[in-house]
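Continuing from the previous page of notes. For each protein in this section, the sequence appears first, followed by its structure tokens. Read the first protein now.
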Amino acid sequence: MSKPSDSTLVIIPTYNELENLPLITSRVRKSNPEVDILIVDDNSPDGTGEAADAMAAKDDHMHVLHREGKGGLCGAYIAGFRWGLDRDYQVLCEMDADGSHAPEQLHLLLEQVDDGADLVIGSRYIPGGEVVNWPKQRWVLSKGGNLYISLALGGGIKDMTAGYRAFRRNVLEHLDLDDLSNAGYIFQVEIAFRVLQADFDVREVPITFTEREIGESKLDGSFVKDSLAEVTKWGVKHRTQQIKHFAEVTGGLAKHEISRLRRRWII
């Protein structure tokens, strides 16, 4: 009997990842030989795109999508999602090129999809999850930011900013990919939030996140301010809608009870 994960595409965005590319793709191929890989390269000046083409020419399960210029991680994933949806993949995964997401743990995400989950997030902040080789300040910033996001938006997800994910195709088909925020890395939070609001089955599995050893992080400090400002706006809007809905429900119940009592008195 076939499973959703039998048709899986792993999307790996790249920008100047020439040294990391053969390492991450070989690990994916060794640990998950049945999946296909899509490298989405943003015109890397170090030759990453050309190297990906050479590798794909020798591997039928590896594909390359070239984008013009450095369009950002959100744009790269959206391009990758669309590429995969056009080719009828049933499960589409996000994975970093720098080795921070262990391909050897991909099966943990895919097993949950096969068990019925719609979106599975590889989490650093649930029991069993961990972060390796991060400075204490960065860990505190990430952990604190995710705690704030969880409190602001609800939903019970501990690692809303995580980028190791597996989606069923129907989730991505439901989302308006053109309407995602491009403020910092906040699109990861926004996607998870929208999926939760649509009542899809969202689960977390523990993963080990390891800081890159080769190359430089694409993250800068501005993402924290920009991202949390966006989350605050969403949180206020979300809570306002909840209060409005609560008021409408309780008001309706009160009207019903008053009407019932009036009928009782009349009788």
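Done with the first. The second protein uses the same format. Note its length before scrolling.
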Amino acid sequence: MKASFSTETHTPDSLIAGNAHLLVARKVTIDAGVLPRGAVLGKITSGGKYILSLQAADDGSQTPDAILAEPVDASGGDVVALAYFRGDFNTNALTIGTGHTAASITEGLRAKGITLITAQAA
């Protein structure tokens, strides 16, 4: 039996802004949309699925609750994905839904254990 190897190029992003050992992630169901890693998610009260949090929503998802840990394409139906529920994250690497700003979501996420940090360029 011959061993085979493959290589991939890993390009780290700047989403994680603190100690990785503080991260807490769990599986969530994404209801709809094509979302990038770092999307700020809100939980739909009825059913408990997650979507991009939009300030004008009225289904519970208007309240930011988690940060998507991986890119997701739920355009064809529900997708199970990982989302962060605790940790330190770079504000500049987030995808924030319409109507929200970093300032408007910071305190609410902090109460949930998510700290937003604006990374400074070197």
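What the second structure shows: The radius of gyration is 16 Å. The longest strand covers residues 79-90. We return to this in next week's lecture.
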